[in-house]
Amino acid sequence: MTTPWDPTTPGVLRLPSGRLVRGRGLRNPLPDGPTPTFALYLLGREPTAVPWDSRWICWPDFWLPSDRAAAREALREAWERAPSERVEVACGGGRGRTGTALACLAVLDGVPNSEAVKYVREHYSKHAVETPWQRRYVTHFS
What is d(CA 124, CA 38) in angstroms, rounded to the nearest whole number? Predict the structure, then answer.
């Protein structure tokens, strides 16, 4: 079993179930310490290869995933892996797309859709989820 994230590490979100997921911006250097065992990258183009298991969701900046069914499947995989792995969710800046994905993980974890954005803004970043359509995506996520 993998050692989980340290919950005091910047960017680590604790979901109500206790699952820990790290959000981050890929334009920033990789933080010191443990690396992810699984990462979900939310970018408009395929990311550079990494030495850990990862999935890419085509998700242009400020928009929504290009393939919503694939995004839902990848988010569910990240949520399912989080209890026993160091899961990271990342986009360019670590706010809009990452915050939206983290809010969707919160929904999977039992947070009501209508409260998920607020939860992520309180526990991850006050700047999470940047656009009205990202908020609407979370509201309708299942």
Answer: 19
Domain that holds residue 84: 12-140
Task: Read off the CATH number of the domain in which 52 is found.
Answer: 3.90.190.10
Q: What is the pLDDT of residues 57-84, one digit of tens each?
A: 999 998 899 999 999 999 999 999 999 9
The partner residues of 14 in beta bridges, in order of sequence, read: 20
Note whether residue 1 is domain-resident.
no
Rounded to whole angstroms, the Cα distance separating 45 from 34 reads 26
What pTM value is reported for the model? 0.96
Number of compact structural domains in the chain: 1
